[in-house]
Write a structure and sequence with these properties.
alpha/beta, TIM Barrel, 8-stranded parallel beta sheet, 9 helices
Length: 248
Amino acid sequence: MTSSPLVSGLAEKLRTVRERIDAAARAAGRDPATVRLLAVSKTWPAEDVRALAALGQRHFAENRVQELAGKAAELAAELPDLRWHLVGQLQRNKAAAAARLGVTVHSVDRAALVEALDRAAEREQRVLDVYVQVDLGGPEGELGARGGALPADVPALADAVGESAALRLRGLMAVAPRRREPAPAFARLAELAEQIRATHPGASELSAGMSGDLEAAVTAGATVVRVGTALFGARPLASPAEGDTRAP
């Protein structure tokens, strides 16, 4: 397994991505160990997840509940310690499936979804880790382009998660605007994250940065970077852009 062409190719890409993360963290005066790599395996087969797991990667993300469920089931017996994350927009009617899987949800963007996830997690007798997704705007600054809650609505949404019985607020998540310099958007996100941590000390995580902008995210304080293309290559099938949390 470790000598296969697939693993060898992934090993080089994984090394490069980790070197980028480490360099960005050190340049920002941070410990590289404080930044976790989340491998976005959406559209790629379970074989690729298996190969990357052989290199030590344990956190994987999908956009769709159905795809996540299939890969998790296929790999559960041989890789029971994989941690699965959902980064795509989640519809309320998929909340029960997410709760059954016990995934970490990065895209909580409205009160109705908080309520649905809370009820579903209570039925499963588990606590779900969630992030509140923030809308950082689009190419001309318009909101709604990449998904998420309006910045002004984030504190109330964080409070709703904090008051729920079966959800645990891990922090904030966001996608940088397309075709714009990401650093200012990530700086705004970091300020909002600091505001949320003042009232929710446990919300210490910041999920931001992808293949093309992870350095800017790490500089702004990201503790989780979501990387797909730089690890796996170009998508084998047509799909939304990496990290795009809009519904397919």
